[in-house]
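DUF2306 domain-containing protein structure dump, as promised
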Amino acid sequence: MPWLFNLFLAIHIGAGVVALTSFWGAVLTRKGGPAHRWWGFVFSAAIYTAAAQALGMGGLSLVWPLAMHPQLTDAVLYRGMFGTMMVYLGLLAMSMTRYGLVMVSNRRNHPGNRHWSMLAVQGGTMLAAGVCLAHGLYLLNRNGLVMEPILMVMVALLGFGTSTTYFRYTFSTPANPRAYIPEHFKAMVATGIAAYTAFLSVGLIEMFPKHAFNPAIWAIPTLFGLAIIVHYLRRYRPATKAQPAQT
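structure tokens r here:
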């Protein structure tokens, strides 16, 4: 099966490169304009493709961890890292992308965000996060305080937070007609953060194996992404109504 893993990996890398470049096309073009929509479509399609290949690679790594990664030796540890966590991250990327797109398509129909398919995607992501968390805690108990299981726990908690935030907005009453815009930004930029984090980690595994799972390095795309989110949240913040003059 290594040939199938390598096929998944080749498609995954190709789609990832498209996602990494088209992300900036969507960020830098006028929001809502034709160019923004086009770049957003390319970015979303690339993310879906890359995430689907991650599911395939993760599934193979769950069953045959050392056959898929012959340079490694600890089957139990890397079944978690390249199996459980990769499947979970693939689902998380898909759920964030779908959420971001649905926010725009349902901008005038907030109840449509509660469609069963959307709830199933978010619920499945939370379930996968729970499995990743449990596997990470097991590996922490087995291997001690090494970075691989610590990272599994960290990304699992991120997924819980993300899905909880999405469920809260979905079942709330929007504060204003433009409330979907921040939700769209947050979801799509978070997907870009995930894409850059995955790209960076794969490169580190090849070039600097000892630093591949260093959370400080993984945090770099997150910091840049948060800066982008904060910028656009400020830019699209609803204007406050002027207070009546005191007499």
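The chain has a mean pLDDT of 82.
lmk if u need the other ones
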